[in-house]
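Hey team,

Filing this mostly as a record. A colleague (T.K.) asked me to run one chain through the structure pipeline before their review meeting, and I want the input and output archived in the tracker in case anyone asks later how it was produced. No errors, nothing strange. Just documentation.

Input sequence:
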Amino acid sequence: MVTRTVPALLLLLLAAGCANAADTGAAPAPVTSPSASDVVDLPVPTAKTSGPTGEPSAGRPVAGGQTITGTVTAGVEPNCVLLADSTGSHLLIFDDPAMRAEAAVGSKVTISGKSQPGMMSTCQQGVPFIVVSVEKG
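Output structure:
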């Protein structure tokens, strides 16, 4: 009988201790607005007029760059476009929205830029390729 009473008594004490832990009697902390020192102003992004190297992007070759010709295809993720050649599939990364418009899905293009194999991407396919120029045809 004693062996059944001890575990029951311990369970009762544990439950009582948990009930007391939830009620500390302290008032909740008041909600306050952030002060001026808590707010950080970040710069507003502006439209870029240059390529990833800081140089004007209109048709300029990139040091160590490549030129690839092929048909633009849609990636499996939204807003991802690819171009394949003999070396594999390239995920096209555009700095300029006008260049991206020139490389519409289904169009045959010649692009210049630089492969960035270590670059992170949400597209999950192809080697990222920073595009600096696009020529149709």
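Quick notes for T.K.: Residues 66-136 form a domain with the OB fold (Dihydrolipoamide Acetyltransferase, E2P) fold (CATH 2.40.50.200). The chain is about 20% helix and 30% strand.
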